[in-house]
Amino acid sequence: MIPAERQRRIRQAIETKGMISFAEMAEILDVSQMTVRRDMQLLERQGHLTLVSGGAERVGRFFTELPMSEKRTLQHAEKTAIAREAVKMVRPGSAIYFDAGTTCLAIAEEIVKRPELRDSIIAVTNDFTVINQFMLNSGCRLYHTGGEVLRENKSCIGELTSRVISGLNIDLAFLSSSSWNETWMSTPNEAKIAVKIAAIKASERTVLVTDTSKFGKVGFFNVIKLQELDAVITDSALSPDIQEHLVRTGVNLKLVDPVIDDEDLDEGASA
């Protein structure tokens, strides 16, 4: 049985039963528990299930976001690759909006490495970590939106933030998301909706930058359909059937392979 078919049957079993053990799934598929575990690990990265002791369970319908401090260490290689692809869309002298989040921070980190961009762009953000990156490492014109501070996310949200963004003319907005599926980008936080929509309306082009560990997760509030975005940049772990569906429905999908830097190799050797 090919991997795609095994994974389809695992997803089907999880949806039907809610939870299943490695042993039971291995018996159903007539494969080893190690094979089932590897398949389930891939499906968890894609957001289709949650691993538990001895097996896996259905992903909760809605979820809450992790604090920024925890997000920084997750999917580093994927975020670096997404950031390097995103930077290709940035032109010298353009006005760029950076949404709150670690993927947008990764984009800022890539921009400050490029002399033709780091001092010439106009950077706008509601994220304190992004603003700090540009303050310390670039000479660009730099604007923070202000607004109500969301401490755990190190960013600003709310009506004041939205009003500031609405008064700007932005060339390109990079939006992050902790939840997206075949149709929607969503968020669990009501106060973030207005900020993201303001950025979308103020921008000539809008790009979603997010890794596949967030795919299949559902926030309570929908923000925008993927087809309405100018592009979606994510990593290549997205399953082929989902890739085909997104492209077929008009999504401008850009896939990147994770970047393994020297520091990642060092961490792996010391683990």
Automatic annotation (TrEMBL):
PROSITE patterns (alphabetical): HTH_DEOR_1, HTH_DEOR_2
Residue stretches spanning the membrane: none
Signal peptide extent: none
The entry's keywords: DNA-binding, Transcription, Transcription regulation
Keyword Transcription regulation in annotation: yes
A Gene Ontology molecular function term of the record: DNA-binding transcription factor activity
InterPro entries per the UniProt record, alphabetical: Carb_Metab_HTH_regulators, DeoR-like_C, DeoR_HTH, NagB/RpiA_transferase-like, Tscrpt_reg_HTH_DeoR_CS, WH-like_DNA-bd_sf, WH_DNA-bd_sf
Keyword field contains Transmembrane: no
Residues covered by the HTH deoR-type domain: 3-58
Gene3D superfamilies named in the record: 3.40.50.1360, Winged helix-like DNA-binding domain superfamily/Winged helix DNA-binding domain
Protein name: Transcriptional regulator, DeoR family
Source organism of this protein record: Cohaesibacter marisflavi
